[in-house]
Amino acid sequence: MTGISVLLVDDQSLLRMGFRLVLEAEDDITVVGEASDGAAGVSMTHSLRPDVVLMDVRMPGVNGIEATAAIVAEQPDTKVIILTTFDLDEYAFAGLRAGASGFLLKDTEPAELVGAIRTVASGDAVVSPRITRRMLEMFATQMPEGAAGDASGAAAAAADGPLSDLTHREHEVLLAIAEGLSNGEIAERLFVSEATVKTHVGKVLAKLGLRDRVQAVVYAYETGLIRPA
């Protein structure tokens, strides 16, 4: 594996120092810069072109949501991982909707942080079942009265649009992604190889015009393909 370049964006210098110490202990990861606010993060991403940005969502001035949206639009090859203090955080959820490829708590274990960076740098996304459940709960609370019907209408509209282009198996894969299953877990469920699942995932993302698995999860919730219990 070639080296992974990482930009740290957080308004707390001690946290940036801690992340740097953890990451630079890895042979394949290099911290190429630090920014203390979203505007600087966007500017440094443009100049440094890191593989991964660790992005705090709650910062003064340009927040992490705005910065993430700008980075995804301007630097599609750079992946963003949202950092937050709380696992049920509307800011973090908005960051995922803006195009982030992952969501981590700031007190995550070092091994999990490193693994997440390697995962998104390889082109995948960090979506755990716990986080997808939290996302669904939050999306449900944000829906106004009568939204269950609206969600059904959105699902029907999507079925007539991009979803109609999916094969039955690709639809099954999309539902499994929305549950937060890994390629290996999807392969086990559908009795196919991981290579086959990876091919299906790629086709699903391409047909729906989605950036990665995180966006597939958001899409499934917002269209009502998956609804609160």
List low-pLDDT spans. 143-155
Distance between the termini: 42 Å
The H/E string reads EHEHEHEHEHHHHHHH
Rounded to the nearest angstrom, the radius of gyration is 18 Å
Query: Helicity, in percent?
Result: 40-55%
Structural class label: alpha/beta
The whole-number mean of residue pLDDT values reads 82
- If helices are DSSP runs of H or I spanning 4 or more residues, what is the number of helices? 11
What fraction strand? 5-15%
How is the main sheet built? 5 strands, parallel
Shape: globular
SS elements, strand count: 5
Neighbour order of strands in the largest sheet:
2-1-3-4-5
Q: Could you characterize what this model shows?
A:
The structure is a single chain. Helix content is 55%, strand content 12%. The model is unreliable at 143-155 (pLDDT under 50). Helix 6 (129-142) packs parallel to helix 11. The protein has a 5-stranded parallel β-sheet with strand order 2-1-3-4-5, sandwiched between helices. The chain is globular, with a radius of gyration of 18 Å. Helix 3 links the parallel strand 3 (52-56) and strand 4 (79-84). It has helices spanning 13-23, 38-48, 64-74, 90-97, 110-121, 129-142, 147-160, 168-178, 183-190, 194-208, 213-222, and strands at 4-9, 29-35, 52-56, 79-84, 102-105. The protein is an alpha/beta fold. Residues 159-224 form the HTH luxR-type domain. This is Response regulator transcription factor. It holds the Pfam family Response_reg. The modification 4-aspartylphosphate is found at residue 56.
